[in-house]
């Protein structure tokens, strides 16, 4: 099968790559905040990312592929802009619940809302359980899930209903602890979300995090290859050493394998039956979680001891990869779920 991006998708990819380069984080001291981060958010809004999953706003069919392409390019530079949480997951939740007015405000940048995840980060949190607002930098509201009369509904509350920042392993993204009285101060928004639609929301969530993982991997590999071509040892560039070449070649295979899984999962969200789309999303998330650890650790090895210092960008990549790996389940969680799904369905087996 020949899989390739359309000309429009390539243009979006190039545009997102330029944006990713302009907002890239090059070390702990370069992580933007407050006004600088707000300006970067507006750039994301101008690109139309919050509207990519809303046909009524972007004028096109919802596309998981375009969404994944943009996330990957910003993840490559470790961008601190809350694209996964606020621009993608929150937008998908609002779209699923038919919150048209909130979507319009999100698309024009006047509404900032962060999705609430469980304390384990394995999925979306219910309003009555401990949770954290994910990718919450600059958010004015938080968006959680509640079950009322057997129906799944969204509740939205102001940022004042969140206790404060959590100490997070990932220094490029903000996590905020949900207060115990958040449910009492929040209001139900939109329409009920049925089970089939909810499964597509979860599939997009896994695919979005897999896309960020792919971006982190690609950035790590690019930097390692560049360094190997510049660093000399005994007057010889280390990139000529066979051991280094083998490490980087293996990393490239893992990156391309993750990209193949991701593109299929991103396409499947909008074109395959729910259970097949979910299987593709779990496969992409599992593969990217496992490959991400190997690729980023390979990059650290190529850079040597300086890569594990606080000042080096590899330190940030390692942290972001470890959090991405946990978000919505790591490879152990998903491989077990994939096996159970295939054994239960003879068509998938």
From TrEMBL:
InterPro entries: AcylCo_DH-like_C, AcylCo_DH/oxidase_C, AcylCoA_DH/ox_N_sf, AcylCoA_DH/oxidase_NM_dom_sf. Keywords: FAD, Flavoprotein, Oxidoreductase. GO terms for molecular function: acyl-CoA dehydrogenase activity; flavin adenine dinucleotide binding. It holds the Pfam family Acyl-CoA_dh_1. Residues 208-340 form the Acyl-CoA dehydrogenase/oxidase C-terminal domain. The keyword Ion transport does not apply. Its cofactor is FAD. It comes from the Bacteria. PANTHER family: ACYL-COA DEHYDROGENASE (PTHR43884), ACYL-COA DEHYDROGENASE FADE28 (PTHR43884:SF20). Belongs to the acyl-CoA dehydrogenase family. This is Acyl-CoA dehydrogenase. It comes from Mycobacterium asiaticum.
